[in-house]
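Anyone able to model this chain together with iron/sulfur cluster?
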Amino acid sequence: MKLELDVLEAFSKEGVLSRSIDLFMPRQGQIDMALAVARAIEYAETLVVEAGTGVGKTYAYLVPALLSGDRVLMSTATKALQDQLYGRDLPRLVEALGLPVETALLKGRSSYLCLHRLAMASAQSDMSDHRTSRSLGRIAEWAKVTRSGDLAELPGLDEKSPVIPLVTSTRENCLGSQCPDFRSCHVNLARKKALAADIVVVNHHLFFADLAVRESGLAELLPSVRVAIFDEAHQLNETGVQFLGISLTTGQLLDLCRDMLATGLQAARGLVDWQQIVASCEMAARDLRMCAGKAHPGSKLRWTDTVPEGLDPAIWSDALDRICASLSGALVALNTVSEIGPEFVRLHERAAELLNRANAFFAPCQTEFVRWVEVGSQLRLTESPLTIAKAVKAKMLEAPGEAGKTWIFTSATLGDDEKLSWFTQPCGLDDAKTLRVESPFDYAQQAALYVPPDFPKPSDSRHPVAVAECAARWSGRIGGRTLLLTTSLRALRVIGETLDLLFENSDSMEVLVQGIMPKRVLVERFRQGASRGQRGCVMVASASFWEGIDIPGDALQLVIIDKLPFPPPNDPMVEARSQALEAEGKSAFNHYFLPEAAVALNQGAGRLIRRETDAGILVVCDSRLASMGYGKRLIKALPPMHRLINEEALVSKLDSLTKTCTSETLPF
Ligand code: SF4
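re: yes, here you go
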């Protein structure tokens, strides 16, 4: 009760937040959520909160967590959100509340500069490769002054830069306590700081990676934490299943071969025939890749029987057999030289781990898991759990020593029913308390929904071109300000190309297609929009742009969605989840496809209205939303927007947006 009173006081009109934070206004939804979090902390409960856009959920969980005085672990979906939480919201509140707490940020090892690998890369740098040498030089200069070693602090370094793998470590190649740079190692220092802090901010990838392999120190940290909070929790299940299964790639085998040859020739030349050992592993990896030679790149082959679909059983088993045999040979060789240096011990561990995984793929798939093979330049064999439910129960909620802990899960979209079952069931949180806090926005006034009638069906090949033509027409009326979200990369390409052609000679419109520049730069360009004499923008994007993009104000006023975002029915994971539901006598469409589409649609629609003064239109170019019975359920899951019945009404609203786009007045 004491914590609830403190929270109420902090959020009150005369409270500490109103006094110390610019533009802070008490909001009932935020207070409701903060009190629920405070109660959950006081009574060691598990709480799931869906907090609509604009509720201010970050403060609603941070304030009670900070005031509780407990040790807290916070996890969010991405490194960018982690930086925002740690660098902006957390220090602001710590200062406002005047609390003497130690905070720490912990990312995965690939985010930190590895001093040992930087030294090796600099020594081996080929001076003829000017770009790499220049980048290494810049990193070496920065290495002298950085305290955290977090590469996100290095200005201008693209997160996909090929130099990053050269200067960061992996679990496989880190030398650990044998490393000459161990004492000043940034990865170790970040972990030590996290272990000593009161509040630690991590991300879901790191959390689940650690739950699976206990590598980053989180496993030691978790038992001492009293409160664990997961923001952007809607991503937990999909992130978690990636780490809780087994996977083996031909790339991992080839990487091992490369490192084994380099280290063997450098430190144990002549003691082992490294060329022969490596050639045998490489050949086995290439033969395994060749098994799926005719499969379309990017395809996923179901693996419900002893071999993946479409592959010759004898050739597949033989190839997998030879992987195991060549790895066993490598293990014997590495064993004979393990005393020469720690590098050989690490190589031995890597080879043993890969052999374990290869052997696992000979055994039948575990129950409630699904197996498939992904074809690309390399072959990826995966066995993944269908959900994280069992792991959440066994390794978190009911793990030894975890009693008395509070677990909070929150996001703007967690399902389309009161019990938030889309989220709670796959996450094993059926017994958790749930709370839904409505968005404070007046959607009926601020936003409108239009579903074009007489539109080509989603399965019609003319559909993407029709979407692009409409988008060109409508965005032209408001000077860009349009985000077009697609459900597939193919649609992204066709729509992007069609819009490029339609605006080819336009001086006033720029088409921004996902992939033409880094996401951060693309979004920044879009934000500038038609301001300061720039051209207006239509941004066409898929996947990660459906969520996490925050463009408030009149830079974004029209969101167009090409199709209802149902999960792809042919995906092995989707198929396996559907079959599991049907085996329980449930309809996969009602219990899986529809809730998935409802949540994804809501995420996409959520890009439109970001604050009380925003106004905009959502267009869904999929007539099923209006014509099919299930469309009602999907519309009900969206915020309650005004419905536009024909294109005339749409055009009239678009025109009213342009008249009011710089004023604070709402157009409808
Ligand atoms: S301990 Fe590992 S991560 Fe740290 S500097 Fe050495 S090799 Fe790099």
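Residues 114-117, 169, 174-176, 179, 181-182, 185, 187 surround iron/sulfur cluster (CB under 6 Å).
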